[in-house]
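Researcher: Please translate sequence to structure tokens.
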Amino acid sequence: MDIQTHYQFTERVNSKGFILVVIVSWLIAGTLDALAATFVLGKGNWAGVFKFVASALYGKDAFTGSTTIAVQGLIMHYMIALVFTLIYFFSYPYLSFLHKNVALNAILYGTFVFVVMNFCVAPLRKIGWRGFQPVPALINLIILIICIALPITYIASKYYAKPSVYNGQL
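Model: Translation complete:
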């Protein structure tokens, strides 16, 4: 990355607009994923879905916990969504291939999120890793591509496509 590109990126990241766009992207992606997890995977049982998320910290005790445990799982879910939103937004200016095709980026980024969550994060949970099951894995991958990666990649591409205040003078 040359100095001008770095300057433009720094200018964007330090703007109020950047924070707002990241927050909106995060909330859209996190909410879509939470809804998909609740209605597609959890058959409408939101508390069960987010108790499962909370079981990463609390182990099997999370499943017998109160609604408070489910709310903590929901908060954890949104924190994970924030991390993946930030990773994409901070990577975008530095990885030129991200500037080409939103749909392809959504597939690649959704796959990246899937791999990180299932093969790096999941084995660390207090309830352990459940192993790889092809059909549920495919459903999870599709949800991550559509609900997490697509909104993030689309919004980031629109945000970074806008002209910068930077006028070419250093």
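Researcher: Any highlights?
Model: The longest helix spans residues 134-161.
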